[in-house]
Amino acid sequence: MTIASNSVAEFQNLLIDPLGKFLAISDEIGGLVKEQCKLVGKALNAQLDFLRLASQSQKPADSKLLELLRPTSDLITQIIVRIYDQFFDILYTNNVFIFLIQSIRDKNRKDEHFNLLSSVAEGIAALGWVSVIPTPAPYIKEMVDSAQFYTNKVLIAYKDKNAKLVQWAKLWIEFLGQLQQYVRRNHTTGLVWNAKGNALNGATTTGLPPPPPPP
């Protein structure tokens, strides 16, 4: 097994544990949490496909890369808008889009699981590491910290009251932390492509898109 295929297999293992346990508990919680986390699973499987392609391919031109990365961007947007009502601006920094929120849906603000939903909306942006050069792992750490702001609220609110929600919060942060370590080991200064791999032509896959050119 090559180094590249080892890297893909390692990422795939993350989707089994702890992510698999996290998604299973999300199903048990139900409601918006279940709906949102199903999209999380789809987004990460899409990124697995993208990493598999990268391990077999030369880095494509930017225009092709944008096409390859588009589908997971759509999934991430769906995950975020489960929580946020509208966006008043979009900024692009280090090839990752950042949404600045104008307001939060009243119905979700009052939802008992609002902090769970918010932690996922913050943490899912970690998938943008594929577009970050030269420090993707520190970028993920920033997303972990943002997500942990909300999971800490879950831990405080449900300690000794709801073991399932406490475990859910711990598993989400555990997964994000392991994702950070995976990227630090395998893609230290940015996504690794295969210099001896195939040239990409019409293939499509997924990930988070780099920013569009300035208007």
TrEMBL record:
**Family that this chain belongs to:** Belongs to the CAP family.
MF term (GO), any: adenylate cyclase binding
Q: Which PANTHER family has this protein been placed in? A: ADENYLYL CYCLASE-ASSOCIATED PROTEIN
CAP N-terminal domain mapped to chain residues: 11-80, 89-191
Annotated transmembrane regions: none
Can you cite an annotated GO cellular component? cytoplasm
- One of the Pfam families matching this protein, by short name: CAP_N
Tell me which InterPro entries the record gives: Adenylate_cyclase-assoc_CAP, CAP_N, CAP_N_sf
Protein name as it appears in the record: Adenylate cyclase-associated protein-like protein
A Gene Ontology biological process noted in the UniProt record is:
cAMP-mediated signaling
